[in-house]
Fold:
Amino acid sequence: MTTVRVYDLPTRIFHWSFAALFVTAYAIANLVDDDSARFAWHMLAGLMLVATVVFRLVWGLAGTRHARFSDFSLRPSELANYLRGVIGGGGRRWAGHNPASSWAALSMMAIALAMGASGLSMALGVAPEWVEEAHEVLANALLAIALLHVAGLAIHVLRYRDGLPASIVSGHKRDLPDGTPAVAPRGAAALLLLLVLAGTGGLLLRGYSQADATLQLFGTRLQLGENHHASRNASESGHDD
Structure:
């Protein structure tokens, strides 16, 4: 058995960026009143989350071996065998994403994109009322999958004692069969991802107006929260009348 790099740097940066942005957006949505100016940061974090997923979709086609979606284990029989192995011991060792993490990763990315689409429609003011409810359901579903993913990871570690959580930090897995090929670190692609994140953040900050909680994005005005300035003007106008 040996230790091999199986996750390239862009994949690891995406993983932790996705987690941080989702936690940020979810926390703001649940801890900050939607009529607060700070609530706009929920939408800003959500837009950056979508940007990371778009990059990951591209990387899932052009990345290193275990970053590609073609390497994901999505057969129901493989998932059943993996779960039986975790419960009863034994089973195949996976160099890349195991069946459970394959399904979790795709599910979370799909939900994040659906959340982005629903949030954008609300910011544009074109969403029917049910879309807001669906947005909340999707957010809770993503949280549930993330918690199940963490719980499954803990069970895996207790069963196999292979230090799996460290692999998404270092990129290396240990106790793999001799001859398991290593992947390249792909530092240039990692730098590109960081530039995408920085560029997206800069674009959003430049277009964001805290005064009325709006965002100018590609010539489109998005309402990220309650328009306090407009409400105050309307109130003053009504008072004058």
Q: What stands out?
A: Strands lie at 2-5, 172-176, 208-209, 214-217, 220-223. Residues 2-240 form a domain with the Fumarate Reductase Cytochrome B subunit fold (CATH 1.20.950).
